[in-house]
Structure formats: structure tokens, C-alpha cells
UniProtKB/TrEMBL annotation:
Residues 25-95 form the Carboxymuconolactone decarboxylase-like domain. Transmembrane segments: none annotated. This is Carboxymuconolactone decarboxylase family protein. It holds the Pfam family CMD. It comes from the Bacteria. InterPro entries: AhpD-like, AhpD_core, CMD-like.
Length: 157
């Protein structure tokens, strides 16, 4: 598959993308674990059909020490036994935050309360940020049809 549009080759788009990358990098020092961040990024990217982001975040998760089993089971996290209750809460929030139009009110009070049970306010703020940023990246890449497959872990660091 080839990209349909060279988004990054356009000056204004490149400037926007640079700021979006900077926003994502603010999460490097987050109290929210990198594992949880990558699981959320992978799940949102799966839902949105973003091969480019899924390529990036499966490889970054593996480089951060995530197991192949957990990476492979993210799509079926409800049926898998390898995720903690906190991770499940984050994945549910990520799914609902990605599929905003599917539920009246966007994110249910139940999903929010479950996440708040496992994460403090700083972690919740960062979880919202991870969900927002990955969805923005997904939309850019899906619209421009940027293919995945050639990313190497650490390439964007």
C-alpha cells in the first residue's frame, strides 16, 4: 500500500505534526506507566484501522519490555487473562474515548468511575491525553493512508 498523500511533505502540515509529536512527548515523564500508554495507543489504533500507528506502538511496546502475548491479545483484552484490572479500565476508557459517537454522552459514568478507581488525577489526566493524541495521529495517518511496516523502535525518539 502506498500513501495517498504526502502529509508530512507539506510545510503547514509538518509544523502541525511537529507540535502534535511534542504534545505526545510530554507523556514521557508521566506517572502513567509506559506499558499502559502503549496498550492504549495500540487499542485505539486497532479500532481506527491505523496500520502506521499500530506498527509504531507494537514495536515501542516490545522495546519497552512488553511481551508478545500481551501485544497480540490487546484486541481481545476482555477475553484475555494477561491484563490487570487497572489496564482493563484504561483500555475500556480508550475504547469509549475513541468511539465517542457510539454511546450517548461519549464515555459512560461506569467506565470513568472504574478508571478513577485505579488511577489518580494526574494519571487520569495523562490517560485522557494519550487517548486524545493517539486518536489525532490515527486520523492523520488513516486519511493520508500512511502505511505501516517499516518503523524501527526508537526511530521517533
Amino acid at each position: 500500500m502506498e500513501a495517498r498523500f504526502d502529509y508530512l511533505g507539506k510545510a503547514s502540515a509538518g509544523k502541525f505534526f511537529k507540535h502534535l509529536v511534542s504534545a505526545g512527548r510530554t507523556l514521557a515523564d508521566s506517572p502513567l506507566s509506559i506499558t499502559t500508554q502503549e496498550l492504549v495507543r495500540m487499542r485505539a489504533s486497532q479500532i481506527n484501522g491505523c496500520g502506521s500507528c499500530l506498527d509504531i506502538h507494537t514495536k515501542e511496546a516490545a522495546a519497552a519490555g512488553e511481551s508478545a502475548v500481551r501485544i497480540n491479545l490487546v484486541a481481545t483484552w476482555r477475553e484475555a487473562t494477561v491484563f490487570t484490572d487497572a489496564e482493563r479500565a484504561a483500555l475500556e476508557l480508550a475504547e469509549q474515548g475513541t468511539r465517542l459517537a457510539d454511546t450517548p454522552g461519549g464515555v459512560t459514568d461506569e467506565a470513568w468511575a472504574n478508571a478513577a478507581k485505579h488511577y489518580d488525577d494526574a494519571q487520569l489526566a495523562d490517560l485522557i491525553s494519550v487517548i486524545a493524541v493517539i486518536n489525532a495521529f490515527n486520523r492523520i495517518n488513516v486519511i493520508a493512508r500512511r502505511p505501516g511496516g517499516d518503523y524501527e523502535a526508537g526511530q521517533l525518539s
